[in-house]
Specification:
- With 110 residues, the chain is of the alpha/beta class.
- It is built from 5 helices and 5 strands; from the N terminus they run βααβαβαβαβ.
- The protein has a 3-stranded parallel beta sheet with strand order 3-4-5, with helices on one face. It has a two-stranded parallel ribbon with strand order 1-2.
- 22% of the residues are buried.
- The model has no long low-confidence stretch (mean pLDDT 84).
Length: 110
């Protein structure tokens, strides 16, 4: 189907490695898992980590869709030029950022 998925997180290695193993994330993302350690501990909302992931996957912002659960992640996606952002958070957070970013956000609360 031509879709590549990846996982991008601010979590440093000491926190991320046990989670990857416990949840068997390799099953879902293969080697396509990137964290802040890979970009000199540059954290979202800086877009560096998302830009790094896009480079690794050879995709452009126009080809990306991001599912994000934090305001910092949404800001990073917007700064990276990603226009398709699915916010998984509270309705209040969505309303706060919808106008600020000037891009459509969808809300999926679980």
């Amino acid at each position: 189907h031509g879709m590549v998925t990846c996982l991008v997180t601010n979590a440093p290695n000491y926190a991320f490695e046990p989670i990857k193993k416990k949840l068997n994330l390799r099953k879902f993302f293969g080697e396509h898992m990137y964290n802040s350690c890979m970009v000199n501990y540059t954290f979202k909302p800086d877009p560096a980590l998302l830009l790094f992931a896009m480079e690794k996957l050879s995709v452009t912002p126009e080809e990306c869709m991001i599912f994000e659960d934090t305001m910092k992640g949404i800001t990073a996606a917007e700064r990276a030029g990603i226009k398709r952002i699915v916010a998984i958070r509270s309705e209040g957070m969505i309303n706060d950022y919808r106008d600020l970013l000037g891009i459509p956000l969808k809300n999926y609360c679980f």
